[in-house]
């Protein structure tokens, strides 16, 4: 694939991916940006691999890769949803975007902190990490129907933030909705 196509993809998705990955990274911008860069490296290799299957929708593919790259790093650094954490060493080119991300992050943390542990974990795995309901059930050692109940509970609690999360590109139209 051409460099122009890759550059176009990068320009289109970089900011949205950093915003989404920022939540998974526990508010650590450096972790989010590193994960997004790794996702674009994999994207470049995938675009230039004639033997690999084609990717029809690069946005969701990149989001899944970036989030899954951030999770182990976040776990390794024992990063938690911490309302007081600030990443002053790294900043986005646009300070307004960083301020907006931090505010949404704080609000999401506050709302998620109010959830019971299982609904919070189910929502994070399903809507932020991008796992299917079946994968969430397996990860949590629950049935899919129990996971759906927990997701519904979390959705109701987080509904006031849904519009803002979509505007920032943290969730898409499909994320957070009832899927099998």
Give keywords.
mainly alpha, single chain, 180 residues
Descriptive account of the structure:
This protein has 180 residues and is mostly helical. It is built from 8 helices and no strands. α1 packs across α3 (58-76) and α2 packs across α3 (58-76). It starts with a helix and ends in a 13-residue tail after the last helix.
Helices and strands, with pairings:
Elements: H1 3-24, H2 29-47, H3 58-76, H4 95-113, H5 117-128, H6 133-140, H7 144-158, H8 162-167
Helix pairs in contact: 1-2, 1-3, 2-3, 5-6, 5-7, 6-7
Largest sheet: none
Multimeric organization:
single chain
Mean pLDDT: 77
Overall geometry comes to globular
Rounded radius of gyration (Å): 16 Å
Short synopsis of the structure:
The protein is mainly alpha-helical and 180 residues long.
